[in-house]
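Appendix B, Record 12. Input sequence as logged:
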Amino acid sequence: MLKSFNLSPPAILALSFAILILIGSFMLFLPFTHHGNLSYLDSLFTAASAVCVTGLIVVDTGTKFTLWGQIIILLLIQVGGLGLMTFSTVILLLLGKPPSLKGRLVLQDILTHSPTKDLLSLVKEVILFTLIVELIGATVLTFHWKDIFPWSKAIFYGIFHAISAFCNAGFSLFSSSFEPFRTDYVLLLTIAVLLILGGIGFLVVTECLFRLQQRKKHLSLHTKLTLITVFCLIIFGTIFLFIFENKNSLKGLSLSYKLLNAFFQAVTPRTAGFNSLHIASLTDASLVLLMLLMFIGASPGSCGGGIKTTTFAVFVSFVRNKLEGKERVHVLSRTLPDETVYRAIVLFALSSFLIFLTTIFLLSTQCYGLPHKAGILSSYLFEAISALGTVGLSTGVTSTLNNWGKIMIICLMFIGRVGPLTVVHFVKAKEVAKRYQYAEENVMIG
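Logged structural output:
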């Protein structure tokens, strides 16, 4: 059907996510999937948050939805996290039917993969790696919770949170996320590892495994830059969260528990909405730090959102090289193509502009006619960044949004999931050849 419309790969990707969200919203609207009344807009919001692996919620997942509703949310997270086309490809391969050329191009967009003959084998490896990691995570969590919950509940909770963590969704069946478990080493470290593995990018994981198996002599620039950036962000976030919250939300905990929670809360903003600390109680400095981490997000080819770690690294490298007076951008003894640098700048600028517009929209629709109140601006700015970065952390304003606010956040979550890919596609599009060019003229900057 999509062939008849001659849609581009990014358009097919966006349409597949939109269709999945609509199907999920109708399923969650069915009476047997939730307790009491649930508006269609709330079911649409929940479905969009699950498919876009965000984690922002307007109703409590653990109490509002029945077991069937929670299973539907879990399936939406899994399919949305890895991409609808990835699962479709696996089904076709099992049926002995390879995907079309356009299908391969869509997969390249999903996995941020350069065209190679090994694309289909990569898809198989991605699915296999995902299932293995999620199974290990679910097993650890199940046995960890077996003394707290009945076996059936421990198994389901283990599976739900393992998939939610690896897909960087941030959905939790606990009303206050992991705040009651801030002294639980096993839980927080297991979730953190799943978040990192799910957010670092499938290609990076594959390349590292090949390197360990001596099947690859050297790591690519992409993998090196991703690993360095992720490591620096985690260390940077952990240290400063520890400093900012030492006498606030971390007060009363031992040094080891303070470091544990600072580490966990430094990992989750990129890009899963789990929290062991009460977000609304954090210091302003911590909230700004979380906004930065949410804006950067995960790595290309992963389940997470944000502008991506490599985009941030390229942007910082661009600024540094220009300040040093260099013509080209150099990173780790390599020169980046101008096209890559331009794409990073466009993505950085466009994301910033979207956040700015969304914040104004939320303030005008949620606080129209009200005088300035301390904390309101930062709360809605935090919400906008969380939605675009598909993070799911919130200071508590999500459940208070009116219909206009919910619709705006739904749109932003959708853009955050598929928008960067679409932006990259259009930036990569070849310019139509012209026989002329306009006269050059300078303008004053700064």
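Residues 91-97 have pLDDT under 50 and may be disordered.
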